[in-house]
């Protein structure tokens, strides 16, 4: 039963993160500026006459940076939710359970 609950919570958190990320992408002026810059730079990068092997290394490097940053952001979000719940429990605003539910951010 616990595993079903944990899976349901993890799925809900994942959905919330996706919705929050989309709202931020649509509303934050700095991210929108960055997206415009990225489009421009991607066009410039695509037009460079560089060998395939070098392009692959650069592409892999960029993909790795993006993947790491996205995972870090997701884990930070989950950790922040856990911190908020712990704070609310310590403040007596949430009932403390005998066995707290642990959500692994891995």
Summarize the entry for a quick read.
The chain is an all-alpha fold and 106 residues long.
Helix fraction?
over 70%
Share of residues in strands: under 5%
Radius of gyration: 20 Å
Shape: elongated
SSE run: HHH
The span between the termini is 21 Å
Walk me through this protein's architecture.
- The protein is mainly alpha-helical.
- The model has no long low-confidence stretch (mean pLDDT 86).
- It is 79% helix and 0% strand.
- The protein has one domain.
What descriptive keywords fit this protein?
106 residues, mainly alpha, 3 helices, elongated
Question: Topology, pairings included?
Answer:
Layout: H1 2-27, H2 29-47, H3 52-90
């Amino acid at each position: 039963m616990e595993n079903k609950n944990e899976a349901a919570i993890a799925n809900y958190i994942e959905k919330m993160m996706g919705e929050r990320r989309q709202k931020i992408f649509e509303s934050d002026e700095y991210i929108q500026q960055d997206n415009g810059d990225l489009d421009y730079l991607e066009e410039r990068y695509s037009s460079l006459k560089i060998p395939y092997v070098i392009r692959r290394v650069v592409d892999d490097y960029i993909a790795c940076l993006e993947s790491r940053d996205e995972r870090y952001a997701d884990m930070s979000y989950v950790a922040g939710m856990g911190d908020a719940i712990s704070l609310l429990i310590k403040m007596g605003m949430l009932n403390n359970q005998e066995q707290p539910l642990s959500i692994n951010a891995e």
